[in-house]
Predict the structure.
Amino acid sequence: MMSSAERNRPWYDSAVRWGQTNLVEADPGRFDLDFWRAQWRRTHLHGIVVNCGGIAAYYPSKVPHHVWAPGIEARDLFGEIVEAARTDGLAVLARMDSNRGDPEVYAERPDWFCADPDGQPMMRGDKHATCISTSYYDEFIPSVMTEVVERYAPDGFADNGWAGMDRTRICHCNACAKSFAAWHGDLPRNVDWDDARYRSWIRWSYARRTELWENNNRVTQSAGGVNCRWLGLLHGQLAHSAAVFQDVAAIAERTPVMLLDHQRRHGDEGFEQNAEVAKRMHSVLPAGQNVLECTAMYDMGYPAFRLSSMPAAEVALWLTHGWAGGTQPWWHHIGSVHDDRRQYDTPVPWFDWHREHADLLSNRQLVAEVGVVWSQQNLDFYGRDDPANRVAAPYAGITRALTTQNLLFTPVHVDRIAEAQVRVLVLPDIAVLTDAQADAVRDFAAAGGAVFATGDTSLRDGDGEEREDFALADLFGAHATRRSQGGLEKPPASIEQWERHSYLRLDEDELSDHPAFTGLEATRTISFGGALREVIADPDRDVLLTWVPAFPIFPPEIAWMRNPKTSVPALITGRSAGGGRVAFLPADLDRCSHREEQPDHAAIIGNVVRWLLDGEPTVQVSGDAPVATNLYRTAAGFVLHVNSLLYDSKIPGRQARITPYGPVRLRIRTGDSVIEEARAHVAGADLAVCRDGEWTELTVDRLEVHEVVELIASVS
């Protein structure tokens, strides 16, 4: 429950612990309200999310075509839950699902639904897909929300699947045809990135979703007051957000709180991705606003097993990495009755801990020395039909390398480069850059900032059309050719296929001791196998890596380098006109690092960033196992998150147990702040601190899931 002081603030500022029992069709006849109220109290909730309507109404709706869930004629389940929540002092978000409808609704209102180019209905499972251009979204959904507000006065609304069909399926209903005609004439019939109409349809689709966000908020605020907000649900994964036209940066400007539906660990990403996602959301939100992240208590394997418990270790790692990035907790169950009752106990210790230490997770400012640029425009117009591999993979390769090497970073939206308060700006294959965005990068460098770009960064304009040369060729000290080597896709597994059996050669002359090669002193080549755009380096630049062409793998007798040394640049360094250091990596080591986790690739990335920093990183870690660190500045000093990266599952994002380890020795640049106390809030112990100039040194003796160290500075 919230205190009286908390209740005087807008609910979205003060309600930070949430729970959701996602109602299913069987629940009206079996929902045990007393049990769930006890679970609310047990996990110290401030608010709940509960189904009200959309596909099916969980209250006796009077809105035409709003189908009642079975059993609602005998029990107003939504109303009962809301009344109990109000009695318990909880905020309430009314959850809707507006992306599909039953066949009987389609039969009565076919004009609400998506149609393919031949006029046939488009399906989502066994239901019909609703169309975002129709009166279903402009009239029906608003009438449902207005009815819910008038009867039950929820604090706001969430909506699952609100963004409609993804970009692989083009709706050709009459409403879409009419609306799109004002943009670009006839609708494109098929997905075709070379068709200007399809690219225009992409932009139109984004604009409609943002318009929908604004329209829904006008409805809820008109009916329920200024703080009754429609909040949708946003996806965490970059490629997924782009696929369903959620312009995260635009939406962040239009919401006081973000609901993050990022529950599934993807097969090529570990728990640490959750901190990156949280930081990326905060990078576009105004300071101080909350990110509430839905965390499944059920098994999110492949496929998701909705009624089985997620291993407690997975929940622990997922939650705590999210807290390190800035999320607030929200447990989520599917259905109200489960044979596997272990899931009810899973959140309890973590919500207990959050209740006791919530002040450490708010009113703080992320400390970052590196900014990693992200761009949904790049996902669309460069990623095209393969955004996960073309765009998301290089970004993930960079952020994971920075995480594992404890280089403090923050995501930077491509349109907010001018606001970035970092020393190094990384552009991971940001091929699509407008002239204005390229100028912002150039201005950052002119002010003395260091820049690290990879792949085809700036080679394409805002429509994804290829330029004659990099827009930032002057900054890179390199010029594009039309020749490329290798490929962006994963190399074939067969040893008979050797076209991608390529290498990179480390400079053997006066640059052989360059910091980029730290830890690689005993080798002059590293494996590659990726894609490389051939470029021409300016005479004033240093070429640190060169490409070695592919050669046969099998049989072993012929596995020797046919051309062991070329002049094709793979890593170029120099300085900008502003004096800052610049590194350009035409070889896609970032994409390869994400895809294959080859240690040398991550080592090169980390070494280059450390060289660009031109000094020691802010946090330095030594120990027997990897950790992730995130540092925040507070009014009292600093808060340092130390999260375990010790996983033993062969599948990223799965974990059956926690393996403790230690000690973890930490060295933190605290500058002029004289740290008098260091409190480990997980261990519940004070840590010994040692001052060494502007550095504070301490040791965490034992790390299980995470540790949160509060560094308290003396008051001058």
About this structure: The mean pLDDT is 95.
